[in-house]
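Hi F.,

I've been meaning to write this up properly since the lab meeting, where we talked about keeping a consistent format for the predictions we share between groups. The idea is simple: the sequence comes first, exactly as it goes in, then the structure tokens exactly as they come out, then a line or two of notes. No screenshots and no reformatting. I'm using this chain as the first example so we have something concrete to point to.
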Amino acid sequence: MCSDRVAIVSASVGAGHDGAAAELERRLTADGLVVDRHDLLDLLPAGLGRAVRDGYHRMLVRAPWAYQRLYTGTERAGGSGPAARALLRAAEDRVLRALHPGTGTVVSTYPGASRVLGNLRLAGRLTAPVVTYLTDFSVHPLWVADGVDVHLAAHAVPAAQARAAGARDVRVCGPVADPRFRPCGTPERDRARAGFGLPYDAPLALLVAGSWGVGPVRQVARELRDCGAAVPVVVCGRNEALARQLAADGIEHAYGWVDDMPGLMHAADVLVQNAGGLTSLEAFAAGLPVASYRCIPGHGLTNAAALDEAGVAAWIRDPADLKSVLCDLVDGSLGRQQRAAGLDLFARSAHDGPAAEIARVHRSGPPPLPAQPGARRRGRRRRLAVTGTVACAVWACAVGTGVATTYDPPALLHALGHSLDPDRLATGHGHAPEGRHS
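Output, unedited:
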């Protein structure tokens, strides 16, 4: 008889992976299952999890151009390099020990976790099925790990990308979001605006930049204000310094971490985002049209392209189009189309979405162990000789999801050193744009 216990392995890199894990946990628990949550960063050897998180954050803020180079390089290579694989293998025993003996299914919401769990399945050390829930609309090859039994996608676009990267069993089952993110009427909208001290009679553009507040947020906030299409309302996440800078710039409505994001979305008329993560899905659930603009490198750009291809978010590539697109999203046919498309994503998800699919996999019992994969087509890779610390830093920096990967660490370290040189920063070359919720 199948155990009633499910494990979810996520990672505290930003807030999107953990946010998806939390909602899956809520739904699976409501379905009568016992859920254990684990953070892969806590299970890395030698306490390297914090270095992974901090290294990834540092690269996004200080050297986004180098991050783009790494993301593109590993995308071409089709996955991680030998140093990163060694680091992930070092976490396998810790992950296996963390899993309760009665665990019937393991779910990953983080690519690095999928790699570790897939390896354990291939080696026969983990008999429970492994399910990867793809939290992004674009699928970097690192998301697709040999040994994972099922990949769950929010839409046909990421599903097709996962299959192209080699995933076998891919199922489209919609996204997940906290049920507080839902459409609202005028009275609730007015109460939300009053609660946040926002104007009643002006269109509001909610500008988000992830839990870390990264990207050219100050520039975008000023552009929103100056174009006149909507009043900017900016959420800076844990970047309190950014909130102070925006206040000094004359941006009247700038917040740090916001606990009531559903209320803030109810108050807004359009969401402007730069990463395409969980916040975009929450906006779709709330019936809020979404625009991708001045996206961060790597996953920010690929998510913008995938959301645009799926027809659920407009990708504004030219600043000259900012005002016209926002006006159309706030009060035009484009906004009506996107509200309908976004809500349609969740039409199935509420009752027959990822959690229901996980429960079906779980109750079907242990599947046969996956066959050892054949040789995959890979891009040319350089042989790497690096210390564990360098591997960890590269892992943190190489992909938007913070997944383990490597791509020419000596060149990377040279690039990072160059980008942080005081003289170079003073001239503005190699300096990241200024940089809640996922």
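Notes:
The chain is about 45% helix and 10% strand.
Residues 360 and 428 are 53 Å apart (CA to CA).

If this format works for you, I'll send the rest the same way.

G.
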